[in-house]
């Protein structure tokens, strides 16, 4: 079955086969500047084995997708509220029961996921919990040219991670030589575009391994090592998933060091305060109209503001500059 989740910010569809995200549509962002352009779809995979937020106990190998039976087929989150969805998978032959609790909140793109794994068999188990995400190019016309397309000149698009207090951006051509792997304190692992970001965030005690592999599609895996479970024993694992705009102020407010995904290189220490100031001016103006492209001052960030009366101001994308210009905007 398909499980639909509707919030003020997005509409998501979960698959019971594997429990991954089949669709995640942002209500306030479009794929192009035209007013009749479709809403932004963050998921492009069609194979349940490639849906983001797949949880496995085999180090992300994905050889066997558990069937997560949901307690409800639809979840609606009202403004200012939150809702929880429980999904349960029982693998009798392996002696494993997985209870999955997903929490959706009205004012954030974060999804809280909690997994309670129980050994219901009669023999000890050896497990290696992992959360998996597979990403490919956005549909044609998506902002910034889409994942792995290279986006605008000089703009990074592809897998990234914040590990050991350092931003790591992995160019896709590096993956042609084989998997890329990092070990240590993994704060988050993601795929980033000029304007959007899909990220997996491990829970507390986040020492683990981040690996990326692929070409046209990049598979990101967060692993936490090997655990042994005695019969009747229970273990709990927690993650967050973020699927939304790469807007600096919003990422800063969300936490988890997600704002580090916006990187200005040598000019970072100066550019970010300037960006905050620019967004402040945009917010304060009564009638705003900001035109920008993927090479704007934000580098890789969305510059959106809210009208003082509460009406959101939608951005319009200009054509990508071809002469190395860094800014193209008007208020």
Automatic annotation (TrEMBL):
Gene3D superfamilies xrefs: 2.70.98.90
GO cellular component, one term: plasma membrane
GO molecular function: membrane insertase activity
InterPro entries from the UniProt entry: Membr_insert_YidC_N, YidC/ALB3/OXA1/COX18, YidC_periplasmic_sf
Ranges of residues in domain Membrane insertase YidC N-terminal: 3-276
Location in or out of the cell: Cell membrane
Bilayer topology annotation: Multi-pass membrane protein
UniProt KW Isomerase keyword: no
GO biological process, one term: protein transport
KW Transmembrane (keyword) present: yes
Protein name: Membrane protein insertase YidC
